[in-house]
Every structure is written in structure tokens, then in C-alpha cells.
Specification:
The chain is of the alpha/beta class. Helix content is 48%, strand content 12%. Strands 1, 2, 3, 4, 5, 6, 7 and 8 form an 8-stranded mixed beta sheet that branches. It is globular.
Length: 314
Amino acid sequence: MKWTGKKVGLALGGGGVRGLAHIGVLNVLEEEEIAVDLIVGTSAGALVGGAYASGMTTKEITAKVTAYLKSPEFAESAIKSIGMTFSPGPKTLLQKMQIFTKNQYYLIRALISPSILPAEDFQSLINYLLPDIDIRHMRIPFAAVTTDLITGRQVVLSEGSLRQAVLASSSVPGAVEPTRMGEWLLADGGVTSLVPVHAARNAGADVVIAVMVDRELPPDVSIETARDVLYRAGEITANALEETELKNADVVIRPAVGNLHWTDFSRASDLVRIGEEAARKSLESIHESLPLGRRLARFTRRLLAQAKKNPPGA
């Protein structure tokens, strides 16, 4: 249902595989009959949000993700190989040898090319999950947040190829090759906006529901080398920028994704449930944030549905 009053926007944050929790959040919003007027996504949030905004149901998105994880494309991908490195599960001696060999190859690749992962790996995932359509033809207005590496500015894509926009938004610096688009050299939107609350406001949202799937800043870390110092400083900067942006959201949903690495698909099946649990815990805040007209309409619909099930005199 389209509303002429205040608009409700969904800001879906980045976090690699942790972004599958967004599907669970969308499930709960549907169950609660909470209509969303626009979706803005960063990285994984752009992937899931783009699929949903295109007209796919959450069941269809889940089925496509499951099918991709069982596909030959994923089995042979660098994404799976790197993810296995960070997976805490037990590994055979053969798997350990394969991981070591491939990691040496990726280390060399990082020194001679603009990315560790082949562009084909990410393009294959995006083509598998998303239709080849123009963003202007989506069922729900949608935008993907990216970062121009040349100017350092945020670029929000709300027209053109959906697949290309999501690829640009998901191009993790160093891991995935940047996307050339005209004079822009676009990389992951998380560089400038890990949870795109401001972009959702600029797109016209009066109420913003933000979903954060990034890892929380770990307190117990070992900082002994220059690499450790640089990595930790980057985490602190990203965390501070994220918290500042989240203050402008009406509701913040934080699925308990823990310290799951962004390429570790070993717990992919649990993430939808984790998203659902987090969304249900936030339902009171979500309903309180909605415009009065929507709350009254939902209340009326539920009364009518209950009366239909239990008519007077039955």
C-alpha cells in the first residue's frame, strides 16, 4: 500500500555475509504489516535491499542464496576459499593445505592487482541474486551507497543498472576491484557510510529504520605490530562514524552477528533467524516511530480480521 503522508525508509548496513540477517528483518516487517516506502543499502545491505525492492519475496531471496551456496560457482570461488580461512570449524589436513596454497596466491595477487578477489566472483553472486533491471523500474524506490575513490565523496546511485550499482556498493577496498562508472571509480559505500541513515533521509524518508550488521568493536585485541595498530585505528574510525550516523535514525536494529567474518558462510543458515530475533525485540520501538495514520490503519485492519474470525453470535 502506498501512503501520501510521512515516508518510512529502511537503511540496510554493510557487513558481508552478515547482511543475510537483513532478510530476517524484512520477514518480521512483512509479518507486522509494516510497509516500507524506500530502501537505501550499503554493500550487503544494497544486495539484499536491492533484491527485495526489485519485487522478490524474502522466501525467493532465501531460496536463491541457498541455491548459490550449493552451486559450482560458489564451490570454486575465492570467496568460499577465503571464508574457510576464517571459519572456526574443524578442517582436514587436505583443506588446511588447500587454504594455505590459495592464501599465498591471494597474497601475491594483492601485490600486483587492485583486488584480492577476482571481479568475476562478485559479479557471479550479484547476477545470481539480482534481476537485470534499471533501478528506476523497481517495485520499491531504492538507492545504493558507494564511495568515489577519486574525489573521496559519497555517491548514491538511484538510477541505472541495479547489478552495476550493487557491485559498486559491495566493492570492498582491496578485496574487490573498484567499479569504473564514467569519471567515478566506485568502491564500497561502507567507506563513507556503513549504515546509510543520512542517505535514506536525503532520499525522502521521514522515519528511518536502520539495520546494523557490522561487528562491534572487539575489546580484547592484541596490538603488537604496526599492522595491528593500523587495523585497530581503522576499526575505531569506522565505529565512530557509524555511531554518529546511527544517532539520526528513529530505530536501530542490531542483529547479534557476533564476530563472524564477512566472508565466512559457515553460519549463513542462522543469520536469517538472528535478524528475525533482533527485529522482534525492536517491534515496540518500530511501531512507536511509525506515523499515526499507519498505526491507526494497522489497528483497524487487525480488529476487522479478528472480527471476521470471531463474528458476533458465533
